[in-house]
Amino acid sequence: MNKSVFKPHGLEKTIQETINEVQAIYLSDSFPWVIGYSGGKDSTAVLQLIWNALETLPVHQRTKPVYVISTDTQVENPIVSLWVQKSIESMGIAAKQKNLPILPNILKPALQDTFWVNLIGKGYPAPRHKFRWCTERLKINPSNKFIREVVRDSGEAILVLGTRKAESSKRHSVMSKLENQRIRDNLSPNQSLPNCLVYTPIEAWTNDDVWLYLMQKPNPWQYDNKALLTMYQGATTDGECPLVVDTSSPSCGDSRFGCWVCTMVEQDKSMAAMIQNDEEKEWMMPLLELRNKLDFRSLGNKAEGDRRLRDFRRMSGRIQLYNDRLIPGPYIQSARENWLREVLTAQAWIRKNGPKSVADLELITKSELDEIRRIWVVEKHEFEDNLPKIYEEVTNESFPGAPLDDNLPFGASELNILKKLCGDNDMRFQLARELLDIERRYQTKARRAGLYGELEKALTRHFFKDKDDALAFAKQKQEIKTHLFTAAREAAATTTT
User: How many domains is the chain partitioned into structurally?
Assistant: First the structure.
């Protein structure tokens, strides 16, 4: 059982000791600080401590910048996203008024790394434990890029985080290990960012310690901590969030806010609870429904999952066998187009039926739509260019993007003829379409170097006539490899004898 840090000396004295520690570390060198802020209780508590520590320093000692970074994955829970955005705005205004070197920043993933560009554009399947492609692209890369730039300009940086040992046994183990490697008081090395030390001022706090502090001490950038408590309370199934009670009472600290599209967990309990506990949040139901459709566990039996929506080939066109089954690759064209319809439909419904605060909600941005369209037409050779048509069908609005290419080889009627010529065999149609598109792209080039290589890749990618043909080929290849391995082993044994 984790004990409260406030019990030995009381809240006021413990907080003052922590503020003294923050000030001492801040004044000990010239390196800037970077605070990770998610808008949740832990990062709010850490930022509030540091804010109060800086505010009680003389102005001439507030020399080092303190960057506050918040990563907007663009698929965050909309309630939390709006909360963070407004909090960051309030923070920036208050810091200027109080002459504090606190500089808030909202970071976003690069366009090619966003969730919908990868899932709808490239066809990456919804994230799962064996293919968790989202976290690094959406969260880690933007923050690491920012921190590396700070380190490059200053030589070193202090990364301040709200991580706590009481969060989980795994977190406790990792933090304890890093604690033993400390080269300066209270500063741990960072395993992935050179010249960046980590400071965790509330590492020993419990959930109830965090809430007690937030409820007893007012938010210095004038953003109500009680509203934060209400948000956590609304995200718990039973709507309860006890705080100042005995240690056996549950805390609402286990509420987890994250991406509304997350399929790493079986259920989005926080969003479901928000909808259940507050009629005014029922407008989020389309998001919960779309998230459940993305979850491969909901698409038939768990063994089959989302295989019917995915190509039997990997992204490169290769095939791979596991337990006599082909490992599925990216979403096929029809699945990607359907996911786009689903997102646009949810967006249109929320804009029409939700409150004024979400009247302009963008589940998918214009720049993402343009990039998805480019990937479909240019990289996947789907020169039907269906994205504008899907957008107009769902929204009843003209697609805002400019024509991607005025020289597409065929229109709808010609494509229908091509499909008939291919005998309604989709694999043949894909091959013919790709070969024609490759030839067209090289047609106007003065030097056509690389054409044969591209044609060879296309022929290799479409080598099999269908999934069964690919499976039979893979099994035959595996049998040959097994036979050769067995023969080599027997030959080695005979030679030894």
Answer: 1
